[in-house]
Design brief:
The structure is a single chain. Helix 2 crosses helix 3 and helix 2 runs parallel beside helix 9. It contains nine helices and eleven strands. The strands form three sheets. It has a seven-stranded mixed β-sheet, with helices on both faces. It has a two-stranded antiparallel ribbon with strand order 2-3. By secondary structure, the chain is of the alpha/beta class.
Length: about 280
C-alpha cells in the first residue's frame, strides 16, 4: 500500500511538472498616453489587471516571463493602486501589491523585464502562452510595435493561448501588415477601410467598450483620447462582443484568443487562460 502511495505521489509530481508552462507577459514601455490637442495623460498598467492573472498563474505552478518592447521597467498606473479594483477587499489589494513589490517589476535596474528582441532570440517556442494586461499604456506603443506583431503572428500560427485584457486587446492591431499606417489613420480621426491580411479578422473579441470609455472620460484630466479601442478593433475587422451592463465582467474566447473587457474581467480571464494551458 505504501509503495502504491509513493508511486502515485511521484506520478502526480511528474504530471504537475509536465504541465507547468512559461507564460510571457507583455507590458508597455510607456508611462503616458498622448491625447488630442497635445495633452498627455500619465498612465501605465493597472495593478489588478496584471497581478490577479500573474498570481493565479504562479499559484498554479507556472512560471512567468515579463517583457516590454524595449525591455524597460514598466510603470504602474497610480490610479489603479486601490482596493476598489479588488472588489473593495483591502487584504487582496495588499497581497497583490506585495507580490508586485517582491517581483521588483517596476524598479529600474532591478526589474526582471526583458525586451521583445530578447524574447525572439530565446525563441517563441519557449513560451506556452502570452498575456497582455491593460491600463492605457498599450494605446501608446503596443498597438503598432513590430516586434509584438511578429510574436502574435507566430502564436496565432501555433494556436497558442493569447490573452489580452481591457485596453490590452488594442495590441492585436500590431499584427496588421501595415500596423503603423493603420493606427496613424485612427489617431488622425479617420476610419480606414478594414485591411486585408489581419490574422484576427472576423474573430469574436472584446475590449473596454466605447460606453465605458465615455463614462471614464473625466479620469483623463480634461483630455480626449485620439480614438477608442473598440472602434479601432472594429475598423480592423473584429466582431465586437460587449457586456450587458457597463463595468461587469466579460470574457470572450474564440479559438486561441482570450479577451477580457475591463478590470473586473481579470479573474475570469485568468481562469480561462489556465484552462487553455491545461
Amino acid at each position: 500500500m505504501m509503495k502504491k502511495l509513493l508511486l502515485s505521489s511521484v506520478l502526480f509530481a511528474a504530471f504537475s511538472t509536465a504541465q507547468a508552462a512559461d507564460v510571457l507577459v507583455v507590458l508597455s514601455d510607456a508611462n503616458h498616453l498622448e491625447l488630442r490637442d497635445g495633452k498627455v495623460f500619465a498612465t501605465g498598467f493597472y495593478l489588478n489587471e496584471l497581478m490577479q492573472p500573474v498570481k493565479k498563474l504562479l499559484d498554479a505552478g507556472h512560471t512567468v516571463t515579463f517583457a516590454t518592447p524595449q525591455g524597460q521597467a514598466p510603470t504602474l498606473d497610480a490610479s489603479s493602486d486601490t482596493a476598489a479594483y479588488f472588489g473593495g477587499d483591502a487584504a487582496a489589494h495588499a497581497a497583490h501589491k506585495a507580490l508586485l513589490d517582491q517581483l521588483a517589476l517596476t524598479v529600474p535596474g532591478r526589474s526582471p523585464v526583458i525586451s521583445l528582441k530578447r524574447v525572439a532570440q530565446i525563441g517563441y517556442g519557449h513560451y506556452a502562452a502570452v498575456l497582455v494586461p491593460g491600463g492605457h499604456a498599450p494605446m501608446q506603443d503596443l498597438l503598432k510595435d513590430a516586434g509584438l506583431g511578429a510574436l502574435l503572428r507566430q502564436f496565432h500560427a501555433d494556436g497558442k493561448p493569447t490573452a489580452l485584457l481591457c485596453h490590452g486587446p488594442i495590441a492585436l492591431l500590431s499584427a496588421l501588415p501595415q500596423a503603423a499606417q493603420f493606427t496613424a489613420a485612427l489617431e488622425a480621426g479617420q476610419t480606414p477601410p478594414a485591411p486585408a491580411g489581419w490574422i484576427y479578422g472576423g474573430y469574436r473579441m472584446t475590449v473596454i467598450s466605447n460606453q465605458e470609455e465615455a463614462a471614464a472620460q473625466g479620469a483623463l484630466g480634461g483630455g480626449t483620447m485620439k480614438f477608442y479601442p473598440q472602434s479601432g478593433l472594429q475598423a480592423a475587422g473584429a466582431q465586437y462582443v460587449q457586456n450587458q451592463a457597463p463595468w461587469s465582467s466579460n470574457v470572450v474566447v474564440d479559438r486561441e484568443l482570450i479577451t477580457g473587457q475591463n478590470p473586473a474581467s481579470a479573474p475570469a480571464l485568468a481562469d480561462k487562460l489556465l484552462q487553455a494551458l491545461r
